[in-house]
Amino acid sequence: MEQPVRGLPLGGEGVTGRGADADGLREAVERYHELLAGDEALAQESQAQLDEQLRRRHLDFGGRLLCTVLRPRLTTPPRYGRLQTRVDPLMRAFRRAYEAAVADAGFRRQFRLADWEEELVGTDPGFRDASPTSRLDLFVVDDTDEMALTEYNAETPAGAGYNDVLADVFVDLPVMREFERRYRLRPVRARHGVFHVLMDAYAQWSGKRTGLQPRIAIVDWPDVPTRSEFVIFQEYFQSLGLDCIIADPHDAEYRDGKLVLGGAPVDLIYKRVLISELVQQCGLESPVVRAVRDGAVCMVNGFRSKILHKKASLAVLSDERNRHLFDGEARQAIGEHIPWTRVVEERATEHGGRPVDLLPFIAERRERMVLKPNDDYGGAGIVLGWTVSDDEWRRAIQTALGAPYIVQERVSIPSEPYPSLVDGKVQVIDRMLDTAPFICYGDFMEGVLTRLSTAALLNVTAGGGSTVPTFVVEAR
């Protein structure tokens, strides 16, 4: 079974150590680029193999190849270990907010759940964690030591399967073979983490921890662009001896106390369909919803994942009204890593420790603010204040008042040089990138997704960008 990159040494915490670490990483990246630029045949062979493997392994998103660059993301053991360490107190804060929300309906109102969502979160999923599998969306600027968490995908995190198969593809590229003459490389994998939490959640739900062979259904619509990743997971689960199908929620039947998909009962749903779309298209009385609510099938992630999935969860963590919920380490992590975020509404609040009237405050600071719908994906509905006029910004605020939205302070977006083959020549272009750690058990980081873009909105679903695997690199 694939082994995670865990327990890596955290060294290099001092200023001198971090500087040496940065120099070593810079030299590794430069060496990789020199190999491509100095050998046209090597670059062309690597590109041809990359494209062929992407197509053969169905590594596409809605027909677009997932990766358009010739270098994976490279990181070092100290940097990767530091990222793991910084994620931990943030996840404790999310857990504390979730526990408070489940216990107190009044507190839960801060998340702005719809009425039907309130009804569903009363369903006990049968396992401990709100989101056994989830993903943070971070921007990490290593040179300045900044790290900003802008979204938490606590419901249907995608990309773990893509990441691992992309790593397999890159391992075999000719340029990687040359690069490994001077550097040791370890791929950072994530797919095993999804498998572990699925099995653990099912064990909790069923009350049995040994001899389990659940029949798994990966559930989503047949026409979604991520369907190719469902095939990756199906093949992975089957390689581990599990019966797994890919199923459309419309095809489900609920009879004799069993949820039937693909002609046979299903024990475990690996839910990739969004809960909001499931309810909108199939209703609260649909077979899948009824079976989950009746405890007839285990679904990961469950309905309660909607609480933390709401973008308002970042407002809950960063709001001065909730400071008392968190211990000192969590408060420090929130202050350092969650940008100032509030639900858009008429209220007084604080910014930088000073009282402000929220709506006039954000209206006057258009170039420092972002508006986001409370529950959407793929960049839909996001308004970047610095890209619109004053009139457009005022209209966007009025729209935000009419539906749950958050406003969030702008963060620094890092960039790195990545090589591409353009008209037969290697071109190295700076691309903005995000860092999206996969989280297991709502607790710790296990693997990371990296997305690249030349546009300010780093989102593959939005129609652009590229995905690359991450490798830990060390000089031989």
* Estimated share of beta-strand residues: 25-35%
Q: What is the mean predicted local confidence, pLDDT? A: 92
CATH class of the domain at 195-307: Alpha Beta
- Second rung of CATH, namely the architecture of the domain at 195-307: 3-Layer(aba) Sandwich
Radius of gyration: 23 Å
Model description:
There is one protein chain. 38% of the residues lie in helices and 25% in strands. Strands 4, 5, 20, 21, 22 and 23 form a six-stranded antiparallel β-sheet that branches. It has 476 residues and is an alpha+beta fold. Strand 21 (425-440) and strand 22 form a beta hairpin. Helix 3 (77-103) crosses helix 14. The chain is built from 16 helices and 24 strands. The protein is globular. The model is unreliable at 1-16 and 458-464 (pLDDT under 50). It has helices at residues 15-37, 40-56, 77-103, 105-108, 115-120, 160-171, 174-179, 191-206, 227-239, 275-282, 287-293, 305-309, 312-318, 328-337, 358-364, 390-402, and strands at 60-61, 64-65, 73-75, 133-141, 146-153, 183-187, 216-219, 244-247, 253-255, 258-261, 264-265, 268-271, 298-300, 341-343, 348-351, 354-357, 369-373, 383-384, 405-409, 415-422, 425-440, 444-453, 466-468, 470-475. It has a domain at 195-307: Glutathione synthase, substrate-binding domain superfamily, eukaryotic (Rossmann fold, 3-Layer(aba) Sandwich).
